[in-house]
């Protein structure tokens, strides 16, 4: 009976996943029949003329997630290293709990805070400074081109970075604590500094779990909806400047699904959901391959 129940649970997960995939494919069929694969490369999104393209939401999803991971990964690893190697014992638990509480804050709270507090701060102080500093530098002057809107892809990426941070730091800290003390003591015994112990013992011993934590955070960043919807500007356009408003796949679906009138409009939104599913699947597959290569290299 126990074997049958566990097998049924595993099969039920596969059936549910298959049902989601089938429903997305069926729902998005009209959009792909109408626009073909050009749906993936079109920037236009006009409900009045029933012309739709997914390029702008795809671009916004990837760029905001990239900004989030650039912020969350080094900061999260730094927090984990500090808590396990440098922080006084009486402060480790309070700081660790405070970091983990960030994961429990609802995403809509992040969005409200980002819209009414963080975005005005960026608009008044940070973005003008970035525009001034990078203005004379080729290429970067396009990435940080004005005017300072406050909201935009850059703001959404930072908010996502804050939301992803507790996942990366908590998993990394838990893994760092599982490193056998004898390995670190041996490294200290031969004269290694704390930095050398971390880079040559702790991180190599934990790299598999670190990659898993980073990919878990990336999956959260790719699918986040409400917080991004508040601060990204919800503009279906692609701009070289990350300070400009944009949109993501999840934000577009959340904003427009209840207002979708017409089969093509609804099908295009479902097609966005299918694209997000495929992107997430590809990311998880790459993560799995990386973990397999790391494990094979470690065993060799």
UniProtKB/TrEMBL annotation:
The chain crosses the membrane at residues 12-32, 52-83, 95-119, 151-171, 269-291. GO terms for cellular component: plasma membrane. Residues 58-287 form the ABC transmembrane type-1 domain. It is found in: Cell inner membrane; Cell membrane. InterPro entries: MetI-like, MetI-like_sf, Phosphate_PstC, Phosphate_Transport_Permease. Keywords: Cell inner membrane, Cell membrane, Membrane, Phosphate transport, Transmembrane, Transmembrane helix, Transport. The keyword Transit peptide does not apply. One of its GO terms (molecular function) is phosphate transmembrane transporter activity. It comes from the Bacteria. Its main location: membrane. It is a multi-pass membrane protein. One of its GO terms (biological process) is phosphate ion transport. The keyword Membrane applies. Belongs to the binding-protein-dependent transport system permease family. CysTW subfamily. Part of the binding-protein-dependent transport system for phosphate; probably responsible for the translocation of the substrate across the membrane. This is Phosphate transport system permease protein. The gene is pstC.
């Amino acid at each position: 009976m126990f074997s049958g129940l566990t097998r049924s649970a595993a099969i039920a997960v596969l059936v549910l996943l298959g049902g989601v995939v089938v429903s997305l494919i069926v729902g998005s069929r009209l959009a792909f029949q109408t626009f073909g694969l050009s749906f993936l490369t079109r920037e236009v999104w006009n409900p009045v003329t029933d012309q739709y393209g997914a390029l702008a939401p795809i671009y916004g999803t990837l760029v905001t997630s990239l900004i989030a991971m650039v912020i969350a990964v080094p900061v999260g690893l730094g927090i984990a290293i500090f808590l396990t190697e440098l922080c006084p014992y009486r402060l480790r638990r309070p700081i660790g709990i405070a970091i983990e509480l960030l994961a429990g804050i609802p995403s809509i709270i992040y969005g409200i805070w980002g819209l009414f507090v963080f975005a005005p701060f960026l608009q008044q102080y940070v973005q003008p400074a970035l525009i001034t500093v990078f203005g004379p530098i080729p290429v970067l002057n396009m990435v940080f081109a004005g005017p300072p809107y406050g909201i935009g892809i850059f703001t959404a990426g930072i908010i996502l970075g804050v939301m992803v941070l507790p996942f990366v730091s908590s998993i990394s800290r838990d893994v760092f604590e599982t490193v056998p003390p004898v390995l670190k003591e041996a490294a200290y015994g031969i004269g290694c500094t704390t930095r050398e112990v971390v880079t040559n013992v702790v991180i190599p011993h934990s790299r598999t779990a670190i990659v898993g934590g980073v990919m878990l955070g990336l999956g959260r960043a790719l699918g986040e909806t409400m917080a991004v919807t508040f601060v990204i500007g919800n503009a279906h356009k692609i701009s070289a400047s990350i300070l400009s408003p944009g949109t993501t796949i999840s934000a577009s679906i959340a904003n427009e699904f209840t207002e979708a009138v017409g089969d093509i409009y609804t099908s295009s939104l479902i097609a966005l959901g299918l694209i997000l599913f495929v992107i997430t699947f590809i990311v998880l597959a790459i993560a799995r391959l990386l973990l397999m290569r790391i494990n094979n290299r470690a065993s060799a």
